[in-house]
Amino acid sequence: MPSKESRYEVIIGIEVHVQLNTLSKMFCRCEVDVDARPNTKVCPICLGLPGALPQTNDTAVKLGIKAALALGCKVNLESRWARKHYFSPDLPKGYQITQYDYPLATGGSLDLPGMKRSVRIRRLHLEEDAGKLIHSSRETLVDFNRCGVPLAEIVSEPDIASALQADAYLKELRLILRTLGVSDAEMERGHFRCEPNISVRPRGQEEMGVRSEIKNLNSFKAVREGVERAVEDQIAWLEQGKEIVQTTYLWDEKARELRPMRVKETAADYRYFPEPDLPPLILEQSEIDEIKESLPELPAAKRKRLFKEGLSKQDIQVLSQEPEWEDYFLNLLEKGATVKEASTWLLNEARGIMAERREGLEEFKVPVEEMVNLIMLLRSGELTRPAAKGLLEAMAEKGRGAKELMTRMDLGAVSDSGFLEKVARKIIDANPEPVQRYRNGKTGVIGFLVGQCMKELRGKADPNAVREALSTLIAKED
Ligand SMILES: [Zn+2]
What is the 41 CA–ligand 1 centroid distance (Å)? Predict the structure, then answer.
């Protein structure tokens, strides 16, 4: 019998509110600084005082277009502003200016890395944020500094089938927005707020299940756990034959429970109507094309390129999940390391050293420039591979430069051919039996002799040069 989970199909769509990287607010000149002293970054416009007229922030519009294009959306030449009404103490106007039936952009898609799944993007629209309530045990205070901060809302189609895919979708979306510079997308600061809606239906059923929506999730962990919980709850209710009511929940991270917040409003509850104080947002195609031209290389294209250049899938996975590692890695390439060198020395050797020292990349004492110096010493033959390993360990320990430590530790490779020959001579004399075997055609024995020489040289020579010296000497004696 199939398991309970496999008899049901999970369908997830996600809305994300992204704070756009602008200096001023969406419809006024107030500075965006939500950490400023409460209620100091406000004006009649963002407080919605009578007679105040909003004006659209062009930078916010450009950032919205950038994000839309990167997601493969069609940017509409005309979009319109609307008022969305609801009551909340942090919303002094009593409505939020947003886009409703004429959004900035529609119809894109995002491929989940390594998952063979594409999630369609329904729309991307611009809007303004509300203020913030600050609760204490005795009172609730309100800070309007965040009122009117520009947001993009990105709405996916319900193409996501598990918590794991939701996680992958959000990570990729966040990475794209950060690559574009559209948003810092710092989750713990509320710059990237996720609202998944989840429904479950018996496999094979045409009709969609009833949705549970989770509000304002600010970490990937909260999304994963919240979605998993919603799926479990819904399956349990379906098994019990209970009726499911469309509900909006808050995720209680400590109790690991979904707390019902309200039975979901419908669009009619918001009494949307056209914003009378703002003209439609009209764009020129040339303006959109220009932004499209200026887009940087996007994460998916970058991964494809690195794979073509020889980086393994596992390495690509590491880099795509850890932006600071990716930064370091790309910096190495920029400063002249090859993909193979960067992968060996950063993702393999340095990562191993950090694991041993129980350090993260932020504590790692080797800056990109010094890592490149080490790679270049190795490339020029001034340093051998085993010596380079020791040198990197010392650099991580002492935080000093590659050249300085190489000299001080006397790790430079022996390249003096006279000296190499002397060592080769000594090893040949000390090992007559292997040498004889080599002469009899067992050429593999040379590896042993090279090893003996390297030991004598404390690893400080190029093994190829040593091999060369050995075979020349033996040949001479024939
Ligand atoms: Zn203002």
Answer: 7
Collapse the DSSP code of 13 into the 3-class scheme (helix H, G, I; strand E, B; otherwise coil) and give the result. Answer: strand
pLDDT digits (tens, 9 = 90+) for 87-144: 999 999 999 999 999 999 999 999 998 788 999 999 999 999 999 999 988 999 999 9
CA distance 18 to 191: 6
Gap from CA of 144 to ligand 1 centroid (Å): 9
For CA atoms 281, 282, 287, 289, give the dihedral sign: positive
Q: What is the dihedral of CA 362, 365, 366, 369, to 10 degrees?
A: 80
**Ligand 1 centroid, distance to 132 Cα (angstroms):** 15
| Dist. CA 45 → ligand 1 center (Å) | 5
E strand or H helix at 169 = helix 163-180
3-state secondary structure of 396: helix
Question: Measured in angstroms, how far is the CA atom of residue 191 from the centroid of ligand 1?
Answer: 19
Q: Could you tell me which of 134, 129, 252 has the C-alpha nearest to residue 191?
A: 129
Tokens standing for residue 165:
């895919």
Ligand 1 centre distance from Cα of residue 240 (Å): 52
CB 147 within 8 A of CB 88: no
Residue 469 carries which side chain, given as an amino acid letter?
A
Give the CA radius of gyration of the chain: 31
DSSP string over 183-207: ----GGGTSEEEEEEEEEEETT--S
Say how many C-beta atoms besides its own lie within 10 A of residue 318's C-beta.
18
How many angstroms does the Cα of residue 87 sit away from the middle of ligand 1?
A: 20
Angle, CA of 453, 454 and 460, to the nearest 5°: 130
pTM value is: 0.78
Q: How far is CA 437 from the centre of its chain?
A: 56
Residue 1 reports pLDDT greater than 60? no
Domains along the sequence of the chain with CATH? 5-291 (no CATH), 297-408 (no CATH), 417-477 (1.10.10.410)
Please report which residue ranges of 241-384 form alpha helices under DSSP H.
Answer: 285-293, 299-308, 313-321, 323-334, 339-342, 351-356, 368-379
Residues in CB range of 84: below 8 A, 6 or more apart: 95, 96, 97, 98, 100, 127, 270, 272
Q: Are the C-beta atoms of residues 253 and 76 closer than 8 Å to each other?
A: no
Ion ligand 1: residues, Cβ under 5 Å? 28, 30, 43, 45-46
pLDDT band, residue 327 (cuts 50/70/90): confident
